[in-house]
UniProtKB/TrEMBL annotation:
Signal peptide: none annotated. It comes from Trifolium medium. CDD domains: Gal_Rha_Lectin_BGal. Pfam families: BetaGal_gal-bd, SUEL_Lectin. This is Beta-galactosidase 7-like. It comes from the Eukaryota.
Length: 241
């Protein structure tokens, strides 16, 4: 068992922060005194069970829509930005308690940019989706109310669908950080399928939130002013010729 300690700077921006535990085996991690949980990258998911097709409808089953077969089941760990320091140095302390002799040299702090968001909802439910802070929905990559097939990244239109699927999602979501849509036949103006209808969407989150952008510009302006004041104080009074 070995303890490791290092420091790192707070990543810029508003994207989600993760700790990549590549190279470690099993243990626990703390950032600035906050535990982010136990890690176990050497726990490998079963190589069987994954499929390109995905359908959650029907009775619950733990084997539905499996992904990541044969990959480490516990490699990336979310680090809330509230755990990180935002002072002038942005210095943060990472402590690892490695139980089984793993190497810390490949461990890294990264940011994850959310590109596309997928979601499904069955008839009678409400579909709710949200982009990360500072982002808005900018494009509909897939939207179908009917009996869509497949999974995120490979959705396909089924045997029937509402011709209003895209327009409903466009009006509800494009340009917004979050949106919700009631999954009913009246919403999509179609009676076919009845309670067997399902909504599947894949939306792109790369639009900028004007309000977040304005706040960030003000913050950056204040930082620039503070730096200029600091430089003036360090240089001292200037003599006139």
């Amino acid at each position: 068992m070995t303890w490791y300690k290092t420091t790192f700077k707070t990543p810029e921006g508003t994207d989600s922060v993760v700790l990549d535990c590549l190279g470690l085996t099993k243990g626990q991690a703390w950032i600035n005194g906050h535990s982010i949980g136990r890690y176990w990258p050497t726990m490998i998911a079963d190589t069987n069970g994954c499929s390109d097709k995905c359908d959650y409808r029907g009775s619950y089953g733990a084997d539905k829509c499996l992904s990541g077969c044969g990959e480490p089941s516990q490699r990336f760990y979310h680090v809330p930005r509230s755990f990180l320091n935002n002072n002038d140095t942005n210095s943060n302390t990472l402590i690892l308690f490695e139980e089984m002799g793993g190497s810390p040299f490949n461990v890294s702090v990264q940011t994850i940019t959310t590109g596309s968001i997928c979601a499904t909802a069955v008839y009678g439910k409400t579909l709710e989706v949200k982009c990360p802070d500072g982002k808005t929905f900018s494009k509909i990559e897939f939207a179908s109310y009917g009996n869509p097939q497949g999974k995120c990244g490979s959705f396909q239109v089924g045997q029937w669908e509402s011709r209003d699927s895209i327009s409903v999602i466009e009006n509800a979501c494009i340009g917004k950080q979050s949106c919700s849509v009631g999954v009913t036949s009246s919403t999509f103006k179609i009676n076919q399928g009845g309670s067997d209808g399902q909504l599947a969407v894949q939306l792109l989150c790369d639009g900028s939130d004007p309000e977040i952008g304005r706040v960030e510009r003000v913050k950056n302006l204040h930082k620039d002013i503070s730096r200029e004041k600091l430089l003036l104080n360090e240089s001292g009074p200037q003599s006139e010729l």
